[in-house]
Amino acid sequence: MASKKKQKRPNPPPPPVRSKPPRAASATAGPTKKEQQRSSRAVAERRDALRRKLVTAALLAAVVGAVALYFVLDDRRDAELREALTSGSCEVDTETDPTRPAGQNHVQAPRYGVNPPAGGDHLASAARGGVYSGASVPDEGLLVHSLEHGYVIAWHQPNLPAEQKAVLEEFEQRHDGDVIVAERSNLPVPFAATAWGHRLLCQEVEEAPLERFFDEHVGNGPEDVPRG
Fold it and tell me: Among 21-25, 136-140, 144-148, whose mean pLDDT is lowest?
């Protein structure tokens, strides 16, 4: 009997090759210490720059506001002063003759177009405080120099009533050394007061405006020198 031929067994499949699992992606490295410090400095610098801008803006706003307030208050003060000086028979102005620079404004024979004068070139000497009338009245060049030193001059016509002259004499005594009372025959109004660059022109002597004019302008001449 013929032997049966053995059938070949199929070779078993090779065992699966085990592959290593993929590595997980490594985490991104964080900023270094130097990078953190640089970042912190940059943030601080931006914060400081912003703070400086805010402070500058606040200061600028404060300055602008203060300047605006100053001009508002100054305008109000000027209006109040004018009202106080002109509430009666008086008027005010700032008419004055031209004056050359210091050192050049001492001339031998000054002449004035503004009456009474409130400035201009003048003699080299100045008149002293006091009450003057008639021939004792100093030359107007001396009087204008006194205005430059900060005096207030009360001018009056010769025929001013006696009681008003007495008011002027008392005014000079209260402010001894700062006031000159001078008779002026060609004065266009009965009474006037002048300081350097300012004039008060009145139809009669009025104490309140005169005192206010004095308080406002005494000592305000361009030359700060002792009076008396």
Answer: 21-25
pLDDT over threshold 80, residue 100: yes
The terminus-to-terminus CA distance of the chain in angstroms comes to 169
Q: Which residue's structure tokens are 């000592």?
A: 219
Give 171-206 pLDDT, tens digit per residue. 999 999 999 999 999 999 999 999 999 999 999 999
- Edge-first strand listing for the sheet containing 91-93: 91-93, 198-202, 191-195, 152-156, 179-183, 130-132
Q: Which residues pair with 32 in a beta bridge?
A: none
Q: 161 vs 75, which has greater pLDDT?
A: 161
Residue from 89, 94, 95, 36 nearest 208 by CA? 89
Among 105, 133, 131, which residue's Cα sits nearest to residue 221? 105
Tokens of 55: 């402070």
Cα distances from 138 to residues 52, 93, 132, 219, in angstroms, run 63, 24, 8, 20
Residue 141, classed as helix, strand or coil, is helix
In the chain the beta strands, taken as DSSP E runs, fall at 91-93, 130-132, 152-156, 179-183, 191-195, 198-202
Tell me how far apart the alpha carbons of residues 187 and 162 are, in angstroms, rounded to a whole number: 17
* This prediction's pTM: 0.69
Beta carbons of 218 and 177 less than 8 angstroms apart: no
pLDDT at 46 over 80: yes
The 10 Å CB-count burial string (b at 16+, else e) for 215-224 is eebbeebeee
